[in-house]
Structure formats: C-alpha cells, structure tokens
Design brief:
Oligomer: homodimer
Keywords (chains A, B): DNA-binding, Repressor, Transcription, Transcription regulation
Shape of chain A: flat
CATH architecture of the largest domain in chain A: Orthogonal Bundle
Protein name (chains A, B): TetR family transcriptional regulator
Pfam family, one (chains A, B): TetR_C_1
CATH superfamily of the largest domain in chain A: Tetracycline Repressor, domain 2
CATH class of the largest domain in chain A: Mainly Alpha
Helix content of chain A: 55-70%
Chain lengths: 225, 225
DNA sequence: TAGCTTCTCGTACTAAGTACGACGACCCGA
DNA sequence: TCGGGTCGTCGTACTTAGTACGAGAAGCTA
C-alpha cells in the first residue's frame, strides 16, 4: 500500500543522520560550501527543509559532521609498518581527500570540537610514530609538522584559481598581463619562466616537500635512538 | 554651521573604503567572522547598512579586502639580507599576524583572487630567495613548502579549542575524561604525558619545525650552488 | 483497534544581503 | 548669488536563509 505522492525521482528510502550528512558533502562538493543551505540540502534529499532538523540540531552540527566525514576518508597509517611508508601514505591520502573536498579546509579553522574520525586519525598517526620508537617529544614535533605541512599545502592548492582540468598557464596568462606594470618583477619572472612552463604541476611540490621533511625527521630519529 | 544630529559618540569623520575595511577587520577580530555582517559593520562605523555599499560592491569584496589587509600586516623579508634571517622573520611574523586574525585563514581557501598586498608579499619572498642564489626550481620548492608549513601551522593553532590566556591543560582535562573509554589510547597517552605538562606551549612547535625546514633547505641550497 | 512513538513537514518569524531610488550637502561656473 | 550637477548617506523593501513551533501522518505495540 504505502501511498506515496512522490514527485522526486526514485524512492525516498527514509532519512537518517548518515544520509543527511553525506548529502551535505555532495552538495558542498558540487557547488561549494556557500551553496550548502538547509533548503538546497533538503531538496537534494527529496524532502523539505524542516525534515533534516530531526537528525541534526542545527546547521553547525552539519558542518562539524561533514568535516569529520571527510577526515574519515583519509587512509589511516598502520602502526608497526615502516613509518616512512605509512606516514607518506596517509599524507598523500590526506591531500587527495582535501583536494576532493576543498571546502573542508576552511571549515577546520572554525570548528574546534573534533569528531570521532578525527580523533581516531590522530591516534593512528601517533601510534605509528611511537611504534617506530620516536620519543614522545619527537612524535609531537613530527606530528605538528606533518599536519601543518599537509593542511597548509591543501589550503594553498584550494586557493589556486583553477580547477583540475585547466593548466596553470590557461588561467595565469590573463592574470599576469594585468600587472605587467613592473610591480612584482620577481613574481612575474618566476611565473613566466617556471610556473607557466608546459609540464608544471603545482601538486608535484607536495612530494618534494614531504620528502624533505621525512628525510629530516629520519635523521633526527636515528640521532636520538 | 553643518548641523549634525549625531547620536553616535564622537564625530563621524566620513567614510572611506579604508575605514570600512579596517572596521570590518576589527569586527571580525572581536566576534569572529560570522559576526561580521553589513549591519554590524555599519553600526561599528556609526552609519547605516546601505552606506557601506558606496565603497564596496558587495560583501565578498569586503572579505577579499580584509584578507589582503591582513597580508599587508605581515613583515616583508628584505632581499639581499641573510636569507635564513629574513625568511624566518617573515614566517614568524606571518604566524603572529594569523594568530591575531584567525578568521583570515579560513577565508584564504575561498578567495582565489589575491590582492596587492598579497602579491607584493609573494614578490618579496621570491626576491629574497633568488638574491641568495637559490635556483628557480629550489625557490619554487622552498616557497611552496614554507608557505604550506606556515599557513598550516596557523590553521592548526586556530583550531585549538582555547584562547591565549588558558593553558592547554585547563581545556583539555575535561575533554580527555569524555573518552577515557579506552579508544584513542595513544592520543590520550601523548596528551597526558606530554601536551598537558605544565610548561607546554604548542606555539613552540612552530620554531622547531621551521628550523628543520630551514636546515634542510640550506643543505639543498649549498649542494646546488 | 487504541494509544504511543517516530518521523515529516507547513507556517511563520527573524536575520542578513542588497536593489532602487530619494534626498541633502557640497561644488562649480555663469 | 543662483541653478544644476556630483557625491555621499540612508529609508524602504524584497529575497534568501536558519529555524521555532506544533500539527499530523505512519507505523508499532498491546
């Protein structure tokens, strides 16, 4: 029986906190965090605005929730494995995930209460370093550093004015022209000579920096052990 | 003559784009970025909402503007000086500035068009590295890295759930109790043994990591020269 | 089947961004 | 001095967004 006068395509399997939050992620991915409104969210779910309030207390809770979902997508390192391999894997994964959900980076700043996925994540990284016999002190240093680098890199990538498919050159050329006024000479030089070269990919910088950090940490680690 | 029926204290010197933007910074500093509304802004200026629209096209322009003002507060390195000294000075300055205006970090992600202060800043850093005879390639690596680290660190600091005066311990204790459930054992261990020690200051981690990066860059630089 | 719980949503209020155009203040040349 | 601009300020009002409140449908249990 179950008469359903449903105008949205397909069925409407019943709401749940999970479904609400994942839908919110999808909306933010598609149109940016500003496009995520209670109304747009409910529409993407095929329901009405007030329905989502049965599952979340308010919009802030949604924001906290989706940040934690994103963190949950990052691969955890496995304590006990080779620490460089594990740490690099999780750093690469973090960057990939944050590039897929760039809005999450900006949210991290304002949301100060970490969710379970976030905590689990921290725990795994610490465990991996400690298992590799990093001292507590070195673990703290290393962790702060790796996270700073990773998030900061993602932040910069998110700030770049172009999307995946475009190359740097396509977008930068017209911008460069605007200030060929002679201000910023070094910036312009670097841009034309280096960043705008055919094969340049800013993303590659990530690996370079990560290697540098890992090398340096390895040195410190063996020095202490 | 100039009859003024002014109800706000003091005078009202006349608006200007500058005054509007600095007032916006002040409002955001005081109450967070969410508290910055056209209405709160105009009130802090002693005027009415629509008055600010004579100086800015819309709110987004305000956001772009204040991010650039914040960037303008960061000390520029001086090309020609000792590169380590200069780069460290600007990194320290950047962190200080971003700690004073934590809302700016989250905004960086969404605002993709850099303002003049931001561009001037980039130019100065590149100039400093190049003057120290870093190759273009190494300059690109170093810059991406230093910025990632600096912004990422600021991002993490901003995410910490306490303000300047409190110590980590004050705020962390009650949180820790919530999950003494045995999940996150390594995290809890690190927290109690290390982060919650009396003198611990997360900010000190910045120096440690920065030194590590600078050392490593110095090695790479001399290897190439 | 009565009554209770679970879930959905209609209505409506508040806050915020901002379009439009009125209006006073000042400014200039005649 | 006066008449017509231009500049700066703001009143009004419309739109979009978050969400309080409570009605009522849907399903569950005894």
């Amino acid at each position: 029986m179950t008469e359903r006068t449903d105008d949205s395509p397909g069925e409407r399997p019943r709401l749940s906190r999970e479904r609400v939050l994942w839908a919110a992620v999808a909306v933010a991915d598609a149109g940016g965090i500003d496009s995520l409104t209670i109304r747009s969210l409910s529409q993407s779910l095929g329901t009405k605005p007030m329905s989502v309030y049965y599952y979340v207390a308010n919009k802030d809770e949604i924001l906290d929730g989706i940040v934690d979902l994103v963190f949950g997508e990052i691969e955890l390192p496995e304590p006990g494995g080779d620490w460089r391999t594990e740490i690099r894997r999780r750093a690469d994964s973090a960057r990939r995930v944050l590039r897929a959900h760039p809005w999450a980076i900006g949210l991290m700043e304002s949301r100060t209460s970490p969710g379970p996925a976030t905590l689990r994540h921290h725990d795994a990284v610490i465990a991996t370093l400690r298992a590799a016999s990093f001292s507590q002190e070195l673990t703290a240093h290393a962790y702060a550093m790796l996270d700073s680098y990773t998030y900061g890199f993602a932040l910069q990538e998110a700030g770049l004015p172009f999307e995946g498919s475009d190359t740097v050159a396509d977008v930068a050329e017209p911008i460069m022209e605007r200030f060929s006024t002679g201000e910023y000479p070094h910036l312009v030089e670097m841009a034309t000579d280096y960043y705008l070269r055919p094969g340049y990919d800013f993303g590659d910088e990530f690996t370079w920096g990560l290697d540098l950090i890992l090398d340096a940490l390895a040195t410190r680690a063996t020095a202490t052990t």
